[in-house]
Write a structure and sequence with these properties.
single chain, about 400 residues, 2 domains, seven-stranded antiparallel β-sheet, five-stranded mixed β-sheet, 11 helices, globular, Transposase, Transposase_put_HTH, zinc, metal-binding
Length: about 400
């Protein structure tokens, strides 16, 4: 099993300057390698699908793949000796990052979904470097030893579980300081899901009036962290517009805005984790709608959808369920709010109508509760649930 723990770093002033220096150099190398990829792409592609009888074919160049770009690193350290101060595997991770980014642009991810054209990074947008391999015992007490960097103080707010090995370490610069992310692995934890109770099941309907409603009638109110912080954000964003571009006072105001946004994001993330934990403690199977959140975030409800953070919550819920050996199922969302959960008759309702009244069976209940029951009922034919119920019999 793989998991990640994040800790706050307490570097000295000299170490903080060195981290910024590493990030600046790695950002420049990332942009150089990406430009090399784009140069190959522009030289070798044809903008049209046909050529005249007489044409001049330009000289084609070899594809700068992962291995050919890695071979340029020794020469880089000769021409730019200051890159020799950076750990070699950290530099190699930059090559891998460029490869993954460019492959998603040309070929797509594992689902075949292509990303947009990769962008060159400004210094402010390049915030992380990674050690893809790190030795056992690098963390001693509240100190971690980073190769070719030194010993840095860490705030261990929670201990690393016994038996877990540190596989990778990433240093990230955020608005309020520096953070260390450790990727942990424990081979003793089975990857096969243990037996769970297929009858301990609930459906959840995500909404903007309430964050979610379960099929048992439990309601989790929506916190609206961003909307509650808008007054504070408006004040400090005005400071930026009133200050001279490039001045230290403007940079200070920008830092205040970044810290406020991070505070909102941390509150939202904490709420998502606590909500997911409470659901998985009570139920073994959680069913939700397979929502097109990206499409909803472009509608007139965009601010509320982004503030709720449905995608982040569902990702956290799915990951925690897998680690606990439980199950999260996504079902088709079509008609969950319109169909009657008692008799199945379609009862058309506009968005502002929050109560379900069925003229056929006289079923009367809250619109979100009706949708949650429909979502739960749609999971009955799921293959994993069927197999688990047969095994229990």
């Amino acid at each position: 099993m793989r998991t990640a723990y994040q800790y706050k770093l307490r570097p000295t002033t000299e170490q903080a300057i060195e981290i910024d220096r590493w990030l600046s150099m790695l950002c420049a190398q990332y942009n150089f390698l990406l430009a090399d990829r784009f140069d190959w792409y522009e030289r070798n592609r044809s903008p049209i699908n046909a050529c005249p009888l007489v044409c001049h074919i330009p000289e084609l160049r070899d594809n700068p793949d992962y291995y050919s770009q890695k071979k340029t690193l020794p020469q880089l350290k000769k021409t730019h000796p200051w890159y020799g101060e950076i750990y070699s595997q950290v530099l190699q991770d930059i090559v891998k990052r460029v490869k993954v980014t460019f492959d998603r642009f040309l070929k797509g991810d594992s689902n075949g979904k292509r990303s947009g054209r990769p962008r060159f990074k400004s210094r402010d947008r390049y915030r992380t470097f990674t050690y893809p391999q790190i030795k056992d015992g690098c963390l001693q007490g509240n100190l971690i030893t980073l190769p070719m960097f030194g010993i840095v103080k860490v705030i261990l707010h929670r201990p690393i579980p016994d038996g877990f090995k540190i596989k990778t370490a990433s240093v990230t610069k955020k608005a309020d300081g520096y953070y260390l992310t450790l990727s942990l692995e424990d081979t003793t934890v089975p990857t096969i899901k243990p037996d769970f109770n297929p009858d301990s099941i609930t459906g959840i309907d995500l909404g903007l009036k309430d964050f979610l409603t379960t099929s048992d009638g439990d309601v989790v109110p929506i916190p609206q962290h961003y909307r509650k912080s808008q007054k504070r954000l408006r004040v400090i964003q005005k400071r930026i517009s009133r200050r001279k571009k490039g001045s230290s006072r403007r940079k200070k105001a920008q830092t205040q805005v970044a810290k406020q946004h991070k505070k909102v994001a941390d509150k939202r993330k904490d709420f998502h984790f606590k909500t997911a934990n409470s659901l998985l403690k009570k139920y073994d199977v959680v069913v939700h709608e397979d929502l097109n959140v990206k499409g909803l975030s472009r509608s007139m409800l965009a601010k509320s959808v982004h503030d709720a953070g449905w995608s982040s919550f569902l990702s956290i819920l799915t990951t925690k369920a897998e680690n606990a050996g439980l199950l999260v199922i996504a079902v088709n969302p079509s008609g969950t709010s319109q169909d009657c959960s008692s008799c199945g008759v379609k009862v058309p309702k506009k968005l502002h109508e929050r109560w379900h009244e069925c003229p056929n069976c006289k079923c009367s209940l809250d619109r979100d509760l009706n949708a949650a029951v429909n979502i739960k009922n749609r999971a009955d034919g799921h293959a994993v649930l069927k197999a688990q119920r047969l095994r229990a019999q």
